[in-house]
């Protein structure tokens, strides 16, 4: 392992900084800042950077203040935070399962959340808040089912993924059945939610995802070292003093809650959780995806995708889920082909 190690007085806390990882993190942060600035400046009404800065700082006037703080900033921050939450959720699952296919949208969390949301839309005619609660509960139920069915003297990564794919297929069939039984109006609403979008999202979604990240990201970072040891195998981790099942349960809960909150806020946005950790791993050339770099990549992917949709189709108001779905499908084909050819060393 390379890098500089920073130690606290008494050496109770140590932090290893890899120069390449730090450089990649800084470049990703600058790219994200540039995308956010362009997003706030452009649209139907063009704003100068001075207008944007004053509005964000609380000194905006008239239309500029309304456009930035009411229309554009909540949508942008929702995209950034949801992208970061999904990426961290995917990084945790891929680390726990030691498989690059370990992602909330592959093993059933996202479709479980969709089942909960569709039940609220079609069966109960719920409000947006109730739909979000239904999505959150659906993801939790799917995760509990997967964990319970995969648990046999512990949870093995390969078994966890296989059970998850089965639950994913089951949830997908239930979702299709619910839509076929819905009225035309409810079916259109349900299908629109299933695409995944940050259109019209407000500060309530921003606060919900931000609170989840503030609580769960430090928890995940605290368990990052046990996670790295578990990637060597359960036996090796136990030999190094790691409480494998306790750490695994905590990290799974963190991953599920992050995916559930993100899905409740923006709907199921596919492939960000799958692709962002792997892109972060390749950029940093590390053995496993770092949580912070994964979060930056996820935030950048979703913010840039939403900006691209707004610029390319300014009148259509396409949901960002269409962009991530198209690009993510190509990425999944490439990933599966690479796995099949045995070129991946991570799994």
Report on this structure:
The protein is mainly α and 347 residues long. 73% of the residues lie in helices and 2% in strands. The protein has 14 helices and two strands; from the N terminus they run ββαααααααααααααα. It has helices at residues 19-41, 49-56, 62-97, 109-123, 128-150, 157-180, 184-195, 203-222, 224-230, 234-239, 244-266, 272-284, 291-312, 320-340; strands at residues 4-7, 14-17. The protein has a two-stranded antiparallel ribbon. Strand 1 (4-7) and strand 2 form a beta hairpin. Helix 5 (128-150) packs antiparallel against helix 11. The longest helix has 36 residues, at 62-97. The model has no long low-confidence stretch (mean pLDDT 85).
Q: What's the short story on this structure?
A:
By secondary structure, this protein is mainly α. It is 73% helix and 2% strand.
Secondary structure layout plus pairing:
Layout: E1 4-7, E2 14-17, H1 19-41, H2 49-56, H3 62-97, H4 109-123, H5 128-150, H6 157-180, H7 184-195, H8 203-222, H9 224-230, H10 234-239, H11 244-266, H12 272-284, H13 291-312, H14 320-340
Antiparallel strand pairs: 1-2
């Amino acid at each position: 392992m390379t890098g500089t190690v920073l130690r606290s007085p008494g050496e109770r806390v140590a932090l290893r900084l890899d120069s390449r990882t730090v450089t990649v993190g800084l470049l990703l942060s600058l790219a994200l800042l540039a995308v956010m600035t362009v997003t706030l400046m452009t649209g139907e009404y063009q704003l100068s950077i001075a207008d944007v800065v004053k509005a964000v700082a609380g000194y905006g006037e008239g239309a500029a203040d309304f456009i930035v703080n009411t229309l554009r900033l909540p949508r942008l921050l929702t995209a950034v935070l949801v992208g970061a939450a999904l990426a961290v959720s995917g990084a945790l699952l891929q680390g726990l399962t030691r498989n690059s296919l370990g992602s909330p949208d592959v093993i059933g969390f996202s479709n479980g959340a969709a089942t909960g949301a569709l039940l609220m839309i079609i069966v109960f005619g719920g409000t947006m808040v109730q739909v979000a609660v239904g999505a959150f509960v659906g993801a939790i139920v799917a995760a509990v089912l997967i964990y319970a069915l995969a648990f046999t003297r512990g949870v093995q990564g390969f078994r966890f993924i296989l059970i998850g794919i089965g639950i994913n297929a089951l949830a997908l069939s239930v979702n299709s059945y619910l839509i076929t039984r819905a009225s035309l109006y409810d079916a259109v609403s349900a299908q629109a939610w299933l695409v995944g979008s940050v259109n019209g999202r407000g500060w309530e979604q921003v606060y919900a995802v931000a609170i989840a990240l503030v609580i769960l990201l430090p928890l995940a970072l605290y368990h990052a070292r046990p996670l790295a040891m578990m990637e060597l195998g359960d036996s090796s981790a136990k030999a190094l003093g790691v409480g494998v099942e306790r750490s695994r349960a905590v990290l799974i809960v963190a991953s599920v809650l992050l995916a559930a909150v993100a899905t409740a806020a923006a709907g199921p946005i596919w492939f960000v959780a799958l692709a962002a950790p792997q892109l972060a791993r390749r950029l940093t050339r590390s053995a496993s995806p770092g949580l912070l770099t994964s979060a930056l990549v996820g935030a950048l992917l979703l913010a840039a995708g939403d900006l691209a949709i707004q610029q390319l189709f300014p009148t259509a108001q396409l949901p960002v889920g269409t962009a991530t779905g198209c690009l993510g499908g190509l990425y999944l084909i490439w990933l599966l082909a690479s796995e099949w050819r045995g070129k991946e060393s991570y799994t």
